[in-house]
Every structure is written in structure tokens, then in C-alpha cells.
Amino acid sequence: MADECLNLSAEMEEFIVEVCDKIGPRPPCSEAEKKGAEYYKEKINNYCDEIDIEPFIIRLGAYKAGFRLPMIFFIAALGLHMVSPMVSLLCMIISLYILFGKMILARPVIDFMFPQKSSQNVIAKIKPLSNNAKQLVIFGSHIDSNWEYPLFRMFGNRFTIFLIINVLVATVFSLFLVVENILIVVHNAEVLSGISQAAIWIFGLIGVPFALLQIFFLISNRPVMGANDNLSGMAVCYELAKTFSSPESRPESVEIWIAAFGCEETCSMGSKAFIEKHWEDIQNAKVISFDTLGFDSDLHVHSAEISNMIKMTPEMVELVLESAREIEVPIIPKSVPFYTDSMSFIRKRITATALSSWPTSPKHFYYHTRYDIPENLAFVNLVNSYKVGVNLVKKLDHMNDCTAKSLFQPPNPPSLGDF
Known about the structure:
- By secondary structure, the protein is an alpha/beta fold.
- It has 13 helices and nine strands.
- Strands 1, 2, 3, 4, 5, 6, 7, 8 and 9 form a nine-stranded mixed β-sheet that branches.
């Protein structure tokens, strides 16, 4: 067993190093991301029954603007307050709309403002031995790597203090403007006489420095290698495809799709396009996203993703935990601070969760930085994620069909019109 794990680690490392050497960073909608998709299709082609590269369109500029525009409108609101408190409030309404809509909830609230760009997903299918598939399992990862976040590199996982301060200051300032404008409308503005300008100075002194940090230093134009985020997930899915395509390991009644999504970093746009395209086939699927597995820390199954307020399917989380316990793989259910492609499936009420790791200290934090390179990867969680995926499919393959459907039938599934 130890030799098997060492061989598996070596094969995953070889895959990741090869992508990094041949292609390098793969920012969303770039030529390198496209080459990454073509490379993955070529690698996995011999281990699947069907495979295709599926193009889709996104509005790429909205992603970085989602971080910067809220702070620009916040600064504009401060400057315009002397001209008109009502205009100042309007600026803050726009700021909060973008801040919560795009940056926090990853909704396309400003996407219409930006030009279209193309990306692609790679979708591979492994059919079961029987002619009638009773279950569909989708193992997902993503091809693209992000641009570097300088604040992450400088402050590690303590960077969240900057975002929290910006959200709090913007929210409190907006509430102050609401009260002020109500008092102006009812002709009681004198209640805030002498307080208003002092408050503006306080909000400015506290908020502007942090707003400028978010505008100029939260995200850069330098793409990172993305060995951990998310070649680690792609490597696990690649090994799963190799395993389940072999005659001795091919499931009897479970169909498996291996999905490598584009543009996950820009609000999971690839998985959203995938769901829209394949909606009729995947409504009852079970989905696991593998993302950022290479930290030398605990392996987590996501119970929730905090950044976008998404709760994973409890039954799927429990199935992952049972699959891990049976083969003595240590795994912890956890609410994690970042989102994965599982977000897209959960929002459409498709059964899903994700596996990831997260650094335990700022010293080992290289997420979205130039240090996300193969040399910094630990492979134990990649191997364990692979083992959990294999055992989970085995469990489903032997599960009574009626029991499986009762466990995982999504309540009131949305229609295609919901997209």
C-alpha cells in the first residue's frame, strides 16, 4: 500500500510538473488556458468513452472590476458628499450593489458592461459496464489559474482583515447616509449639524487607505502557476479516469464524468456554462469538486463555502465522510472561506460538495501567489482524495437503486428557465 501511494504521488507530480513546464500559468480566457484544455483532452483521451472541448463565452473584465469598482464608488461618495448627500448615497448604493453582488455572491451584476471573451470546458465520460446507468457521478476540477493577489503574498491568510474593514466601513457609511438623507427630506438636517463633516473625515481616514489597498494591491495582472490551485485537482481527476476506465475497476451501473472547467477563478463561469448545456442529463448527478488539495494540512470536505454563503448537500457530505472512514482516510467536514465550482451546482440544487485543503498558518499560505508552484506541494491530500473518490463510486455502485434515489433526489429542481 505504501508503494502504491508513492507511485500515485509520483504520477500526480509528473502530471503537474509537465503542465507547468509546457504551458505555465493559465489565466482565464487566455491562450494558455486553451492550451491547458487541449493538453488535458490529449492526456485523458485514452481513458474515456467520450470526450469533448466545449467552448463558452464570459465577460472577463467584470471579475477584477468587482473588486475595484466598489472602492472607487466609495471614494467618490466621500468626495461628492459636500456637493450632495443624495448623490453620495447613490454612489454608495452602487458600491454595495457591486460589492455584495459581484465580489461576495459572484453574481453577474456588472458583466454586461464588459466585452465578451471565450473559454472552454473539457468533459470526458466513462460509461458503466451495464447498458443502463443508474447513477451519474461528476468529478470536477478547473484548468485556469488566477492572477496574483499581492495582499495574499504579503499578509498570508490575515488578508481577510482588509476585506472585512472595507465591507464594514462601506456598510456603516451607507447607513449614515441613509439617516442623513431622511433627515434632509423631513427638514431635520440640523440634528446632524456639526457631526456630518466630522463623520465624513472619520470614514475617509479609516476607509480610504484600505480602499486604495483593495483597488491597487488586492489583485494584479501577473498570472500565477496554479500548481495547487488547481492542477492538484486536475491530477486527481486524471488518476480517477485512468482507474475507472480499466476493465477491472469500471463500475457496473455508475456513469462517471470527468469535468475540467475553464474560468473557475472568475466566479465559476465554466461550471455555470456546463450546467446550462447539460441540464437535462445532470439534474440527479452527484458532484465532487477537487480544488487546492496540495497544502500540508487537513483534508476537508466542504460543509459550506463562506465567501458566497453556499451550504453543501448534507447527504453528499456524509457520503464522502463514510467513504473516507471505510478506508481510514482522515477527513474533516468544514466551512471553508473560498468558493469552488460546487457553488454552481448547489445554486441549481444539484447534489454537490468539494474536497480541499487550507493552510494552517500565514507562513505556509501561498494561495493565489507566485509561490503556488510544484515545489511547494504536499501530495498526501491528493492521494487521499483519489482514494475517497474511488471508494465513493464503489459504494454507489453497490447501493440499492431505490435507496440511492431517495437519498439524493433534489427537492423541486429548477427548470431550464431559471438559468
